[in-house]
Amino acid sequence: MRRIKLRMNEQRKYQVIKDLVDQHKNKRRAALTLDITVRQVNRLIRKYQDKGKAAFVHGNRNRQPVNCLTTEINKQIVTLYRSKYQDCNFKHYTELLNRREHLPVSYSSVYSRLTQADIYPPKLWRKTRKKRAKARYRAKHPTAKTKTLKQAVNYQLALEDAHPRRERCKYFGEEIQMDASSIVWFGTKKAALHLAIDDATGNLVGAYFDWQETLNGYYHVFEQILKNYGIPYRFKTDNRTVFNYETAKTKSENKDVLTQFGYACQILGVNLVTTSVSQAKGRIERANQTVQSRLKPELRLAGVTTIEQANHYLTATFIPAFNREFGQDYRQVTSTFEQAPDNRKINYTLAVLSPRVFDSGSTISFKHKYYQAVKASGELVCFMKGTKCLVIEALDGQLLVTVKDQVYALKELAKNAQHSPDLDVAAKPKRPKKKYLPPMSHPWKRASFLAQQRKAHYQHQYA
């Protein structure tokens, strides 16, 4: 005869009904003991009389649940993570299984299967970290008391998790935090991802790849913010680029990030705050970690190999998906963004300004090339030796120069002549097209820029 094992609550129910039937006890007292109705007691009596002790075994015992994953799927979850998605966190891996592998599994199922296979995510939960830390400490100190173990582990984790929180900003656009992270995002070469996140909503408002953390990268992020949202109230970024510039042996305007970026902020009326403490801009620091864990495998799975493809994937696919998953709907939050200028003014505002001096040949040297000043019609303009000017390199690459209160275009002076009047057949000269030259404005005055440059370098006042 097969031996029947009952659980504790089943054994109690069986004992009460057995005594009720064998000793003819009161049904109402049995119902009160089991916290059921008399009708249910009558059902249990009939089951006991028909099947005996086996009637009290739960019907789902030893049955596999309908929503239980098969052994094949469990193996597939572990195999896919080890072979294809090894650099994803578990939450992102669950989304990719649903989207790319068509495996509708839950996060808890993925987490339990992978941890059973001794696979842990890059960022562990605090409870899991503490559990693993205790196991490591116990392995090193097998004779340690429980109290000593708790004190040692809790103290170590407290230092690791020390990051005080603060309230978010109230308005959308009140504070935009910016930073760049340089890792191997795609291919084999390191690239710098410049990010900007709104503190109030947690939305990414700008992102751009460049090969290094440069002014060009931050300018393109600023351009995205201006065109998509408007002029924000404040930027918060780190000031490590200042120290990197001041200690560099070879200095150039492109590397003087905060002076140039701060001058553009001053023109548009944006406050610029810098800090060297990462906790002061924790929103962008945490966003960098999330983006690094999610974007890198997505770029690999999408077959991205060039920086142009990566920038297109950022704006077209990744940022909208990131904001839907982690951000708030900014349309439901009061905005402090002001109306942005037109695209032409944005192009000339996000410019690199470089003081220069004309030589005896009415030329200036810029980026190892020689240039001459010309009017909009193409007519050459000559200046005396030593005339001071300000070269403006617009965001789209157009080169201008300001002398006193006049703006001129710059024409590159080739090393060798394009045409020889003595040896080449005379060609019909082309009529030069008239170029657009923006009107002179106060921010393009050489004295204004030099004053801001002195403030930035000696007083660290950027905007």
Can you lay out the helices and strands and say which pair or pack?
Elements: H1 8-23, H2 27-34, H3 38-51, H4 71-83, H5 90-99, H6 107-116, H7 126-140, H8 146-160, E1 176-186, E2 189-198, E3 204-210, H9 215-228, E4 234-238, H10 240-247, H11 257-268, E5 271-275, H12 282-301, H13 307-326, H14 343-349, E6 352-357, E7 364-366, E8 369-374, E9 388-393, E10 399-403, E11 406-413, H15 446-459
Parallel strand pairs: 1-4, 4-5
Antiparallel strand pairs: 1-2, 2-3, 6-9, 7-8, 8-11, 9-10, 10-11
Helix pairs in contact: 1-2, 1-3, 2-3, 7-8, 11-15
Q: Total number of helical segments?
A: 15
Low-pLDDT residue spans = 242-248
Proportion of residues in extended strands: 15-25%
Helix content: 40-55%
End-to-end Cα distance, whole Å, is 89 Å
* SSE ordering: HHHHHHHHEEEHEHHEHHHEEEEEEH
CATH class of the largest domain: Alpha Beta
Protein name: Transposase
Domain Integrase catalytic: 160-349
GO molecular function, one term: nucleic acid binding
GO biological process, one term: DNA integration
Name some characteristics of this structure.
alpha+beta; 4 domains; single chain; elongated; Nucleotidyltransferase, domain 5; 11 strands
Q: How would you describe what is shown here?
A:
The chain is α+β, with helices and mostly antiparallel strands and 463 residues long. The protein has 4 domains: 8-56; 71-160, no CATH class; 176-345, Nucleotidyltransferase, domain 5 (2-Layer Sandwich), CATH 3.30.420.10; 351-418 and 430-459, no CATH class. Helix content is 42%, strand content 16%. The chain contains 15 helices and 11 strands. It has helices at residues 8-23, 27-34, 38-51, 71-83, 90-99, 107-116, 126-140, 146-160, 215-228, 240-247, 257-268, 282-301, 307-326, 343-349, 446-459; strands spanning 176-186, 189-198, 204-210, 234-238, 271-275, 352-357, 364-366, 369-374, 388-393, 399-403, 406-413. The strands form 2 sheets. The protein has a 6-stranded antiparallel β-sheet, with helices on one face. A hairpin with a 5-residue loop joins strand 2 and strand 3. Helix 7 (126-140) packs across helix 8. The radius of gyration is 35 Å and the shape is elongated. The chain starts with 7 loop residues before the first helix and ends with a helix.
